[in-house]
Structures are given as C-alpha cells and as structure tokens.
C-alpha cells in the first residue's frame, strides 16, 4: 500500500525548503520532491546580499545548504524524482513521478521558474557551447575571454559583475538606454573597468560551428544590424542570458487555475483547489526574491497544517 504523507512539496528551492522546514517542524509527515539538486535559481547565484541575516558566506549554495540542513534536521524527507502527472481533485492527492507514485493529504507547489531564452536562431543549438544562463556555473570556462551579458535587470548586472572575475571584458547588451537594476548595483557596474555597455540593442542571431563565434545585434532605435565577431586569437566568446524567467508549471495545466502560466493564490497561498497551495516564483506575485519565496513557503505550510486538521482530524 502506498504511504500517505501529510504534505508533499514539489520543488526544493527556497519556497519548497521553507515549506518543508515549517511542515516537518509542525510534526507533519513531509516529503519534498525535487527533480535535480535542491536550491532552485538561488543555487546558481554567486552572491546573496539582500537576504536578511545572510552576511558571512552569502552565496546561493551556502544559503541553500543551510536551508536543506534545517529541513532535514526536523525530519522532512527529500527525494530526487521528476513529477510527470498529478491528480489533485481527490481528497488524497496523487503525484506520479518517473520513479514512484506518492500520495498526500495536501500538496504545496513550489516548482519555481526557469530562465527565459531569447528565442532566436542559433541559441538552442549553441547552449552549452558558448550560450549560458548561469554565470556561477559557467563563468570559469571563459577565463581571459570576452563575454556578453544580455539583460539590464538586477540579475543581469550582478552576474556581469561576477563574470569580471574570469573574463577580460564583459559587455552588457540592453534593449534600452538605461539599466533596470537597482541603483546600488548599477553603481558597482559603472565603476568596474572591465564592464562595457551596448545600449538600445538586442541580439537577433547567434552563430558558430560548435562554439559561439559571432552574433547579429540590432539597434532598437535605428534597426541597423551589426555582426559581432570573436577575436581572431580567441576564436569564440560567451553569451550569458538574463532576461527573466518562465514559470515551471506545465504539469499543473488544467489542474489548478493559472494566469499566463503562473498560479494565482490568496494571501494564505491557497489555490482554487482544496488542499493545494502554491509558493515562490511559480505563483502570481509582483516581487520574486528569496525572501518572498521563503515567506510564501512558511505561510503555505502553516495553512496546509490548518487544512489537514480541519479536513482529516476528528
């Protein structure tokens, strides 16, 4: 007979780990399902300066490691599995993964979001061959080379600054004539001698035979296109894309209400389905940060406990 958990949390980013900590600390039998390693987007971030209390060793991996340790110490179970299908309509919810089938009284969806691609010719073919979405993961591969960062928000500028540790030159390509990042981050970038800017520009095509060797850039005001070619001695350059994220919610289509792929909830993280909650970046919200994700996770777990006590306890 399949074991029935009190709460199953799908996703082990900050929202899922926070939910796991709160649920297991409340003595709920808790399972966290993650398809890869825990941490979500934050694990790829080199420096986390805006999470309260995270001062020493304030990297994404170190912060994630502490979250995992806390959830584990309170008894949350964690497994690696890819969820393929969910049945959320019944009183006991069923989660079908590649490896196993799981059942729970309540489900917390914390699947987060994935990097948004530019969607241009050559991008998919050259991903991992010069095109990247993770500076922490791939920055060292571009030591002493030139790299280009596409985007102008906090993530793009922060990662551009990080990449200067490796690359000899970093150029930020932004579709407008000013950055969207907060002023304190902008100031750091403008002061960095290794960082240059390509304003009012978008990348239209990426080219290369096995490795990125050139790209076509278009001026958003004039429409003029220019081909940027790798330095002859280098033979290649890097393109790091930070233009936002897409919600990782495909398996929940038709199972819960959605708005442009994101899951709407009330203030208690409740979806339109009884016993199903959502937390973190997959949820409809205005601010997607680690601190808001952990808050969502805590609220979702507390409300899941209340739901279970009301529906299942005599």
Automatic annotation (TrEMBL):
Its EC number is 1.8.1.9. GO terms for cellular component: cytoplasm. GO terms for molecular function: thioredoxin-disulfide reductase (NADPH) activity. One of its GO terms (biological process) is removal of superoxide radicals. Its cofactor is FAD. It comes from the Bacteria. Keywords: Disulfide bond, FAD, Flavoprotein, NADP, Oxidoreductase, Redox-active center. Residues 5-297 form the FAD/NAD(P)-binding domain. Binds 1 FAD per subunit. It is an enzyme of class 1 (oxidoreductase). It holds the Pfam family Pyr_redox_2. It catalyses: [thioredoxin]-dithiol + NADP(+) = [thioredoxin]-disulfide + NADPH + H(+). Belongs to the class-II pyridine nucleotide-disulfide oxidoreductase family. Homodimer. This is Thioredoxin reductase. It comes from Anaerosalibacter bizertensis.
């Amino acid at each position: 007979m399949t074991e029935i958990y009190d709460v199953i949390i799908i996703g082990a980013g900050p929202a899922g780990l926070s939910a796991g900590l709160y649920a297991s600390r409340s003595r709920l039998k808790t399972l966290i399902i993650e398809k890869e390693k825990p941490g979500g987007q934050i694990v790829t971030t080199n420096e986390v300066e805006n999470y309260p209390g995270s001062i020493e060793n304030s990297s994404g991996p170190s912060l994630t490691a502490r979250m995992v340790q806390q959830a584990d110490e309170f008894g949350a179970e964690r497994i690696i599995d890819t969820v393929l299908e969910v049945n959320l309509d019944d009183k006991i919810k069923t989660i079908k993964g590649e490896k196993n089938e799981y059942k729970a009284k309540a489900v917390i969806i914390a699947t987060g979001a994935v990097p948004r691609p530019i969607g241009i010719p050559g991008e998919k073919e050259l991903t991992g061959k010069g095109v990247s979405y993770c500076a922490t993961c791939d920055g060292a591969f571009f030591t002493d080379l030139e790299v280009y960062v596409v985007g102008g928000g906090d993530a793009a500028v922060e990662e551009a600054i990080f990449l200067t540790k490796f690359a000899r030159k970093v150029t930020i390509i932004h579709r407008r004539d000013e950055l969207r990042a907060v002023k304190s981050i902008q100031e750091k970038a403008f002061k960095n001698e290794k960082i240059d800017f390509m304003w009012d520009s978008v990348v239209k095509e990426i080219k290369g035979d096995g490795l990125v060797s050139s790209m076509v850039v278009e001026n958003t005001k004039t429409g003029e296109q220019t081909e940027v070619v790798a330095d002859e001695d280098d033979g290649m350059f890097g393109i790091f894309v930070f233009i936002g994220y897409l919600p990782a919610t495909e398996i929940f289509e038709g199972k819960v209400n959605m708005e442009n792929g994101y899951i709407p909830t009330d203030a208690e993280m409740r979806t339109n389905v009884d016993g199903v909650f959502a937390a973190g970046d997959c949820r409809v919200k205005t601010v997607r940060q680690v601190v808001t994700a952990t808050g969502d996770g805590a609220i979702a777990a507390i409300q899941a406990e209340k739901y279970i006590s009301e529906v299942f306890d005599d």
